[in-house]
Amino acid sequence: MAEAQNSPTLGSARAGGPPPAGSTTAGSIAVAAESTVATRMSAPPSFDVADFPVPHGREEEWRFTPLERLRGLHDGTAVATGSGVKVAIEAPAGVTVETVGRDDARLGRAGKPVDRVAAQAYSSFEQASVVTVEKEAVLTEPIRIAVHGEGGVAYGHQVVELGAFAEAVVVIDHTGDAVLAANVDYVLGDGAKLTVVSVQDWDEQAVHVGQHNALVGRDASFKSIVVTFGGDVVRLHPRIAYAGTGGEAELFGLYFTDKGQHQEHRLLVDHNTPHCKSNVAYKGALQGDGAHAVWIGDVLIQAAAEGTDTYEMNRNLVLTDGARVDSVPNLEIETGEIVGAGHASATGRFDDEQLFYLQSRGIPAEEARRLVVRGFFAELVQQIGLPDVEARLLDKIETELKASV
C-alpha cells in the first residue's frame, strides 16, 4: 500500500511522530494534494441559503460530488414530503429530550452551514430535536437516536448538548430510504466527554447529505465515529471548533463503498484556540465498478492557536478493479508555535505477502481476504465501545466481503 505523507502548507512540521514528506500521488485510484482551507469554499458560512450559489460541479467543494444524483437537494427543487424520515430517541435518566421550533436559541450554536445544501436544510426544517445532558451527569447507558427513512424528502436539525463535566455516548442510526439533508450540532460544556457513533446503513437508493458541527469546551473531549455502508450518495461534513483551551477531538471513520455508490467525507478541524489537540483516522474499503470514495481532511491552525497538536490519516483498501478513491489531506498553519502537525494518505490493494502468509498456513484464499479486511478495520471498530454496535458492524463487513467473492 503506497502512502503519501504530506508536509504542512505553512509553519513547522510535526515534532515527533511520523515525519511529513513531499506530496505524491498513488496511481490512478488515489490523489493526495495540497490546497489551503481558505480557497476551498465558494462562499462564507451562513444560515441563509441565498448566500450560496447553486453549485455546478466546478467549485472546489463540489468537484467530486455527482450533483445529478442529489435528487434536487443542491438546487432547491427537492421539496419536503410528509413521509420523509421518522426520528425516535431513547434516553436514560438525566437526559432531557425536546422537540422545538425554529426560533429556539440553541439551534446553530455549534456552527453555521458551509454549503448550499446545509443552508437549505437549516432553512427548511420545521422542528428540531434537542437532547440535553445535565451538568455532571455520567450516563451508564447510551442515548440512541434512530432516523428511519420512509421514502420521501426530508430536512432535519438535531442538537446534542452536554453540561459541564457531563459524560455521554450517543448512537445515531440511519436506516431505510430517504432523500435527507440534515445538520447536527454537538455542544460540549467545560470538562464534558461525548462519544458519538453515526451509522449510515441506508437502503441502496437513499441520498444523505449532512453537516456535523462540534463545539468543544475548555478541557472537554469529543470523539466521533462515522460509519458509512449504505445509500446511493452519502456526503458528510464533520467540523470541529474549540470554545476553550485544553479541548481534545478524535474523529474516526469507517466506510465500505460498493458498486455504483458514492461516499464522501469532508472534514474540517479548526484549531482556533491555544493548547488543543485533534486526531483524525478514517479507513475505507471499495469494491465494484463505479464505487467512488472521497475523503477530504482539512486542518486549520489559526495564528492564535499556539500549542496545537494535530494529526490526520486516511487509508483505503481497493478490493476490485473499477473502484476509485480521491484522498486529499490539507494542513494550513498560521503559527510556528505548535507541538506538532502532520497528515498522511495511503491507498492500495491487498498486500500479497499477507495473503501468501495466511494461505501458506492452510487458510483458503477467500478466508484470507476476509481476515485481512477485518484486521484493517478492527482498530476503528474497537473505538466504538458498544458491543452490540461493534458486532453489528463486523457482521455488516462480513456481508460486504461475501458479496465481493
Describe this structure in words.
Helix 3 (365-381) packs antiparallel against helix 4. This protein has a 17-stranded mixed β-sheet that branches. It has 405 residues and is mainly β. The chain is built from 4 helices and 17 strands. The two termini are 21 Å apart. The radius of gyration is 20 Å and the shape is globular.
Structural key phrases:
405 residues, 17-stranded mixed sheet, 17 strands, 13% helix, disordered N terminus
Task: Assess the beta-strand content as a share of residues.
Answer: 35-45%
Q: What is the SS-derived class?
A: mainly beta
Cα-based radius of gyration, to the nearest Å: 20 Å
Shape: globular
The number of distinct helices, counting runs of at least 4 residues, comes to 4
Give the biggest beta sheet.
Answer: 17 strands, mixed
Distance between the termini: 21 Å
| Overall pLDDT metric | 87
User: How many individual β-strands?
Assistant: 17
Helix amount? 10-25%
Order of helices and strands: EEEHEEEEEEEEEEEEEEHHH
- The parts where pLDDT drops under 50 for at least 5 residues are 1-35
Short structural description:
Helix content is 13%, strand content 42%. By secondary structure, it is mostly beta strands. Helix 2 (352-360) packs across helix 3 (365-381) and helix 3 (365-381) packs antiparallel against helix 4.
How do the strands and helices of this protein lay out in sequence?
Elements (H helix, E strand, L loop, with lengths): L1 E5 L78 E6 L4 E6 L15 H9 L3 E6 L9 E20 L4 E22 L4 E8 L6 E10 L4 E8 L4 E10 L5 E10 L4 E10 L5 E10 L5 E10 L7 E10 L5 E10 L6 E9 L3 H9 L4 H17 L5 H18 L1
Parallel strand pairs: 4-5, 5-6, 6-7, 6-8, 7-9, 8-10, 9-11, 10-12, 11-13, 12-14, 13-15, 14-16, 15-17
Antiparallel strand pairs: 1-17, 2-5, 3-4
